[in-house]
Amino acid sequence: MHDVSQIDAKLKAGESLSQKDIDILIATENLVGVGSIADILRRQRHEDRVTFVRVQEIVAEEIKASAIEISPAAGLIRILGNAGNWEGYLETARSFVSAAGKIPVTAFSLHLLIELASENPDKLSELLSELKNVGLSSIAEACIDQLDESKWFDVVGEAGLTIERLTVGDLENHGGVDVLRKVVEWGESLSCVRAFAPLSRNPRNQPTTGYLDLRQVALARIVVDNIESIQIDWKIYGPKLAQVALMFGANDVDSVSAFDTEDLGRRRKPVVEIERNISAVGLVSCQRDGRFERLMI
């Protein structure tokens, strides 16, 4: 406890964390103390601002652009899944970019694009360039479980694209802190990544508690210094955990619904609820789009 308090005081005095400080924070069970450190680091980067994005998510195999109604409230159209062959990926991206109009479209998982390019960096670069040329704003995600080398991120950056978010498929088998160290080790190669979502995309596949989730979010903000935003998924983890995560280092909320409904009353509309939850913890909400640009609503 004393060590964590000293680190807290050190940060408030404007000093930087040492590796010894980070090791202490990783080892401690003092969640409140770790959360306090993460909150200081978040405020140093983002002051009191929290961004959120309203997402319309589409699975490529399930629907065609001509058969879907694009929500005008969406700040991002995200296409996931497998579009088949090379031309299938290009046509899927092209058709949804056309249907989305001015709304940014992000699409596909990096490891699937690597497989499609036969794990050839030159072929991947060609595919990425073609996806950019049809109007794709960003690659939707890179799942760290599926990637063993940082060189693929260099290819993305050289092609002039970004990766919307770095995700974790399964923390149980990959280890929470080990994942964070892997992200740090990849260093500047991840400069094309806009946000890191440190919690599992499949939380029901593993035993978990709010303690472990919040600890992972806080340690992500403390350990990972090469990705700007730490992200929590509203759809997967729910409004309450997302709200608390903002006090433990997260600064971006993903997957707020792009569809409004009156079923639960006006106060339960997604945009009203997310803005209320952010302001309730003393922070300022900023709605963004898929390019991480602020929307003036």
Itemize the secondary structure elements and their pairings.
Blueprint: H1 2-12, H2 19-27, H3 31-46, E1 49-59, E2 76-80, H4 86-100, E3 105-109, H5 110-116, H6 121-133, E4 138-143, H7 151-158, E5 166-168, H8 171-174, H9 176-185, E6 195-200, H10 210-223, E7 229-233, H11 234-245, E8 252-257, H12 270-280, E9 284-288
Parallel strand pairs: 1-2, 1-8, 1-9, 2-3, 3-4, 4-5, 5-6, 6-7, 7-8
Helix pairs in contact: 1-3, 3-10, 6-7, 9-10
Description:
With 297 residues, this protein is α/β, with parallel strands linked by helices. It has a single domain, classed as TIM Barrel (Alpha-Beta Barrel), CATH 3.20.20.70. The chain has helices at 2-12, 19-27, 31-46, 86-100, 110-116, 121-133, 151-158, 171-174, 176-185, 210-223, 234-245, 270-280; strands at residues 49-59, 76-80, 105-109, 138-143, 166-168, 195-200, 229-233, 252-257, 284-288. An eight-stranded parallel barrel has the order 1-2-3-4-5-6-7-8, surrounded by six helices. α10 (210-223) links the parallel β6 and β7. α1 (2-12) runs parallel beside α3 and α3 (31-46) crosses α10. It is globular. The mean pLDDT is 92.
